[in-house]
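Hi F.,

I've been meaning to write this up properly since the lab meeting, where we talked about keeping a consistent format for the predictions we share between groups. The idea is simple: the sequence comes first, exactly as it goes in, then the structure tokens exactly as they come out, then a line or two of notes. No screenshots and no reformatting. I'm using this chain as the first example so we have something concrete to point to.
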Amino acid sequence: MNKPLVIAIIVVLAGGSAMAAYQSRLFGDYAEIVKVDEITKTINVKGEVLDATPITESRTGPREVCEDRVVEYQVQPKDPNKITGTAIGAVVGGLLGNQVGGGTGKTVATVAGVAGGAYAGRKIQENQQEKNARTESRVERSCETIIETRDEVVGYDVTYVVDGETSTQRFNKKPGKTVSLGKKPVVIAYDVTYRYRDRVDTLRMKDDPGEVGDRLPVKDGAVVVDSEG
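Output, unedited:
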């Protein structure tokens, strides 16, 4: 082999390595991004309620209305048919009729006395019951169904803020201090595949590394990032 040629090649290679090292120190060393995968998780989204305006509609329909009323009523007597007075009157009338006349006339007088006494006894008891009658009061509930038109709350226009952005949405129910807006995925990290010289590797980063083709700084042969995992 031509010795001068070998020496020349060695000198060129050494010079190239030295130049690469010099450029690396001068301009910095970098790895090229070849792939970025987002790592996500699903979170519940809640908005802070700023205002809730009720929405009403006029509706017609039946409604039951009830009230308590004081009702007076008469206490029924113990002998509403006046049997006692009728019986006593009949006995007394019969005795009196029996003392009148004789024979057939006495019998007729007795029957008439019984009938008259019964009637008189009934009327006497009736008058006595009316004098002694008493009235009592009690509360009774009275209800009726009416047809009316009324305003009903059918929803709420809710104004809320999420991540500094204010929005308004209609909900069926009145919200509290916060309102649930469903779920959404959020990026929590990035799996970054990069190429450094003849090596391809992957690491996890918390911050957005950029796009494919962007460069990552390298120090002492390692990518300089705030990584996790």
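Notes:
Helices lie at 3-27, 83-98, 103-132.
Strands lie at 29-74, 135-162, 165-171, 178-196, 199-205, 215-219, 222-223.

If this format works for you, I'll send the rest the same way.

G.
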